[in-house]
């Protein structure tokens, strides 16, 4: 928004789902902003510099590629000083039984690629991993063999208006759930989709939702949706049928015990400042009374507070998630009986980002995570033409 210095009615210059700083063009004819417009990856997106003219008209893109540019500052001579972030990411497997520093150092790399990899899910026999990758220039769901990292695509989107996100492998039944706005009314509204690991039986379930999890038998897909200002958890039979409301207490980020005896989820707490924090709760049965087993601050959730979700260990004793420690992400776990958080990795002093979904090994002794190694510096861009 801009407003005349002498006063008046503010007017909109640009609208976007994520800005990271802006500056004036030296002659005052427009704004240079760091925007995620056009990025099909989300955890985090690629930020490029765009020019938004005050007189209206089409915005023009200044930077391209896999580096993010944030918080620009233009000088009177037309030079632009900006923060440049470069990220290299892959799937890693980390032991969690030792010291956090040693666990981080003993990680095993699963994939080796030049593009970005974000958010993952492991198949039931722990031979393959599904994840989001921009290999080919657009975010799609890919699958890699854990033994050798060989990759294949599950989805084939190329339209920059189409979003694909957060695959989640069913524990049984041979289906992968993911989110997409391909058939949605708006670009920011995603539906629940499923497909078999070979890409067949691709189906839009016709339901708006996110924060999904599976029942232990793979027959039900749980999800959260916001309606009338409240987040609900519902479940739908993937073989066909109507959704059933499970929770109506501002609940999201579910995890279901393998035998269906317990539902773990997060309840949103809104502070006076507007920052979202969360109670971690367990309900037995899933639609019955719930009790608090822990809390987590929204400020500790990587990339965005609403990426929050806990992932249940195979023995049902731990809920794991990535959390921020200063400028870097680490893997943490909370006992399902309640108690203190346990730090599982320590990447310090490296600056890494682990966002959204992670996955357990079948023996419960390791965690898989998409790890982005972040390198940042301040650069000056010269010779730009407004």
Walk me through the structure.
The longest helix is centred in the first third of the chain and has 6 residues. The strands form seven sheets. Strands 5, 6, 7, 28, 29 and 30 form a six-stranded antiparallel sheet that branches. The chain has a four-stranded antiparallel sheet with strand order 1-2-3-4, with no helix packed on it. Strands 8-9-10-11 form a four-stranded antiparallel sheet, with no helix packed on it. It is built from one helix and 30 strands. The mean pLDDT is 93. It has two domains: 74 residues, no CATH class; 287 residues, TolB, C-terminal domain (Neuraminidase). The radius of gyration is 22 Å and the shape is globular. It has 386 residues and is mostly beta strands.
What key attributes describe this structure?
386 residues, 2 domains, mainly beta, Neuraminidase, 47% strand
Identify the CATH architecture of the largest domain. 6 Propeller
Round the Cα radius of gyration to an integer and report it.
Answer: 22 Å
- Proportion of helical residues: under 10%
Largest sheet: 6 strands, antiparallel
Per DSSP, the total helix count is 1
Strand content: over 45%
Structural class category = mainly beta
Domain module count: 2
Quaternary structure classification: single chain
Globally, the shape reads globular
How many E-type strands?
30
The overall average pLDDT, rounded, is 93
Low-confidence stretches: none
Name the CATH class of the largest domain.
Answer: Mainly Beta
CATH superfamily of the largest domain: TolB, C-terminal domain
- Termini separation: 20 Å
Query: Within the CATH hierarchy, at the fold level, what is the topology of the largest domain?
Result: Neuraminidase
């Amino acid at each position: 928004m801009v407003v005349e210095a002498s006063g008046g009615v503010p007017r909109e210059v640009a609208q976007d789902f994520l800005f990271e700083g802006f500056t004036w063009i030296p002659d005052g004819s427009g704004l240079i902003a760091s925007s995620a417009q056009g990025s099909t990856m989300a955890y985090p997106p690629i930020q490029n510099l765009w020019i938004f003219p005050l007189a209206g008209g089409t915005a023009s893109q200044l930077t391209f590629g896999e580096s993010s540019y944030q918080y620009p500052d233009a000088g009177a001579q037309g030079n632009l000083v900006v923060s440049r972030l470069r990220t290299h990411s892959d799937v890693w497997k980390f032991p969690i039984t030792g010291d956090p520093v040693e666990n981080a150092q003993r990680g095993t790399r699963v994939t080796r690629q030049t593009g970005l990899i974000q958010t993952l899910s492991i198949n039931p026999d722990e031979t393959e991993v599904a994840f989001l990758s921009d290999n080919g220039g657009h975010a799609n769901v890919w699958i890699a063999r854990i033994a050798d990292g060989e990759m294949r695509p599950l989805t084939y989107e190329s339209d920059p208006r189409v979003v694909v996100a957060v695959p989640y492998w069913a524990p049984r039944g041979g289906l992968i759930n993911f989110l997409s706005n391909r058939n949605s009314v708006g670009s920011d509204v995603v539906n629940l989709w499923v497909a078999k690991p070979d890409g067949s039986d691709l189906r839009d379930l016709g339901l708006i939702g996110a924060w999904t999890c599976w029942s232990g038998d793979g027959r039900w897909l749980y999800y959260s949706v916001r309606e009338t200002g409240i987040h609900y958890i519902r479940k739908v039979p993937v073989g066909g049928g109507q959704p059933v409301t499970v929770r109506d207490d501002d609940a999201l980020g579910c995890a279901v015990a393998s035998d269906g005896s317990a539902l773990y989820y997060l309840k949103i707490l809104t502070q006076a400042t507007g920052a979202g924090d969360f109670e971690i709760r367990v309900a037995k049965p899933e639609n019955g009374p719930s009790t608090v087993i822990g809390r987590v601050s929204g400020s500790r959730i990587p990339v965005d507070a609403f990426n929050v979700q806990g992932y249940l260990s195979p023995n049902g004793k731990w809920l794991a998630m990535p959390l921020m420690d200063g400028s870097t992400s680490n893997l943490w776990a909370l006992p399902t009986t309640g108690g203190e958080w346990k730090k599982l990795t320590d990447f310090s002093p490296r600056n890494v980002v682990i966002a959204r979904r992670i996955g357990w090994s079948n023996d419960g002794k390791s965690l898989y995570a998409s790890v982005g190694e972040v390198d940042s510096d301040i650069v000056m861009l010269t010779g730009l033409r407004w």
